[in-house]
Amino acid sequence: MTSKSFSSKGLAGDSIRRSLWALVLSGVGFFLSLLLPVLMTMQRALEQKAYNLNNSPQYMEDAWQGALDQVAVLLGYNPFVKVTFVVMAVVCGVALFAYLHNRQKVDFYHSLPLSRTRLFANNFLTGALCTLSTYFVMLAITLACVYAMGFGEAADWGAIGGTVLCNLIFFLLIYALAVLTTIVCGNTVVTLLLLAWVYFSPLLVRMLQIAMLGKFYETYSSEGGLDGTIAAVRLCPVMEYFTVDGIRYGGVATLGQTGSAAGRCGGSDRAGGISVPHPQKRAGGNGACVRPVKAAHQGIYLSDYERCVRHAVQPDCGRFLVLARPGDRRGAVPLDR
């Protein structure tokens, strides 16, 4: 007969009990990256509101709207939460499968009355549950605090749902790569080195290519190779994770995919085009459409592009977009509305 300890429920419960350190680590990480910043932001906003009410009532509405925007950003695109997910994916992926690097532990685990498939699935699900369970708990507590302190207007459920979906997908991807490298390698140090190569090798190869071309070709200019760098970044799961805002792409690395959104923000209905006034026709208001692909080949970027896409529904959004080449600081180009 098979012991109850090796049944599906018993095995999962035993694995979670042995991985309490992962629950504690993820709980502390999400508390510091999600709940604590939101609470500090709301407390500071309430104090500022009380001060403005007594001393500067004309600035109270703008300050309150700014606080709501800050809370909305922390609930949506929060880079600290992304860092926590990346760290937990690497730590859980390496730690839960590190027994494969020890011959005695391998002999012990493989002698249990379990198939290799069940053993792998149990360890994989343990790491995912220890991370995601604390994330959802902290998110629920954070939302409860947001509504309790009067910041319910900042909770955009569509954006929050997209953020949760994005975090879930990228965490599972990064976690699966960490597990794969741990299984393939026979040493923890080699695992970490290979993992860094898997995460960042496309970008490193692209940077090496640019360096070699610049060294051996005097007429080479890296400004025209922005599209290749964008493609390299998209092949790096960790780098791509930080360029995704919920279910939307933002920033320079994803300029080609979100041109239509920026076009709507700037008053253009053409997909992939951003309407900006031509420098010689600003007074007349005739806009010139810059295609993202063409802009990438010319080394052109929009420094304020991410804010424009993220707040496309705001009436005061996108009044100015910076249109320049890398290193050019000539100022802002107003949008043609």
Can you walk me through this structure?
- With 337 residues, the protein is mostly helical.
- It is 63% helix and 6% strand.
- The protein is built from 13 helices and 8 strands.
- The chain has helices spanning 8-18, 20-55, 60-75, 79-95, 103-110, 116-148, 157-184, 188-216, 226-234, 237-241, 259-266, 292-297, 305-310; strands at residues 244-245, 248-249, 274-277, 287-290, 301-302, 320-321, 323-324, 333-334.
- Helix 2 runs antiparallel to helix 3 (60-75) and helix 4 (79-95) packs parallel to helix 7.
- The termini are far apart.
Question: Mind sketching the topology for me?
Answer:
Blueprint: H1 8-18, H2 20-55, H3 60-75, H4 79-95, H5 103-110, H6 116-148, H7 157-184, H8 188-216, H9 226-234, H10 237-241, E1 244-245, E2 248-249, H11 259-266, E3 274-277, E4 287-290, H12 292-297, E5 301-302, H13 305-310, E6 320-321, E7 323-324, E8 333-334
Antiparallel strand pairs: 1-2, 3-4, 5-7, 6-8
Helix pairs in contact: 1-6, 2-3, 2-4, 2-6, 4-6, 4-7, 7-8, 8-9
In short:
63% of the residues lie in helices and 6% in strands. The protein has 13 helices and eight strands.
Rounded to the nearest angstrom, the radius of gyration is 25 Å
Enumerate the strands of the largest sheet in spatial order, edge to edge or round the barrel: 1-2
SSE pattern, N- to C-terminal = HHHHHHHHHHEEHEEHEHEEE
Report the sheet-strand fraction. Answer: 5-15%
The number of E-state strands comes to: 8
Kindly state the mean pLDDT as a whole number? 74
Shape: flat
Please report the number of helical segments.
13
Stretches where pLDDT falls below 50 for ≥5 residues? 250-337
Helix content: 55-70%
Strand count, sense and barrel status of the largest sheet are: 2 strands, antiparallel
SS-based class: mainly alpha
Q: What is the terminal-to-terminal distance?
A: 75 Å
As an assembly, this protein is: single chain
